[in-house]
Amino acid sequence: MPNIAIQIYHGKFEGLIRVEVEFDSEKEANEFVPLGWMGKEMTNLPIARDGKLLDLTSEKFEENLNKR
Questions:
Q1: How many independent structural domains does the chain possess?
Q2: Residue 55: DSSP 8-state
């Protein structure tokens, strides 16, 4: 079973709720079927990582939030 963490953002990043799923193996990751309440995959978006998220302007944040 993967490790699942939910992050809910407020303030400047209001509206972003991120679910991080960690796996013990690549096989486990490839076999994972997202749960029905999980949104779109956003691994490759800047809003997927806190380090990149902090560098986004408000406009870029909104643009990325709407991509998911």
A1: 1
A2: T
